[in-house]
Amino acid sequence: MLTFPAVVAPQPPLVTWKGCSDLGCTGQVKMRVTRAVREDAAGTYNFSVFSNNEVYFEDLSSSRTRKILHLTQPDSTFLFFGVRDAQEADAFRAKYQTRVAHVMILVLTLMAKGFPEGASAIPTTWDSRKVERDRAQFDVSARRVTSDSFVFRIQGPDHLVEGDWIMAKPSPWPDSQSMAGWTASNGVTIPVMTLGELRQLRRR
Question: Which domain holds residue 109?
Answer without folding.
Answer: 25-203
